[in-house]
Amino acid sequence: MYVCLCNAISDKVIRSAIHQHQPQSMQQLRKLVPIGTDCGKCIRQTRVIFEEEQAKI
Ligand code: FES
Question: Rounded to two decimals, what is the model's pTM?
């Protein structure tokens, strides 16, 4: 499922970046995947995914 339509980024891409690089903040995650660089509508959902994956690590 696409989370970021502007940059065509799926939840799978976000989850795998979190597992591979283990960013400690949304800021660090956004350096790995270009989330929210255009309209910004994807940031809220990305935060939910980030928190879900953090809970699993
Ligand atoms: Fe991600 Fe627009 S949906 S920047």
Answer: 0.95
Question: Which ligand 1 atom sits closest to the C-alpha of 39?
Answer: 2
Burial zone of 29 (CB within 10 Å; 0-12 exposed, 13-18 middle, 19+ buried) = buried
Measured in angstroms, how far is the CA atom of residue 33 from the centroid of ligand 1? 11
- Please list the pLDDT of the chain residue by residue as tens digits (57 residues): 999 999 999 999 999 999 999 999 999 999 999 999 999 999 999 999 999 999 997
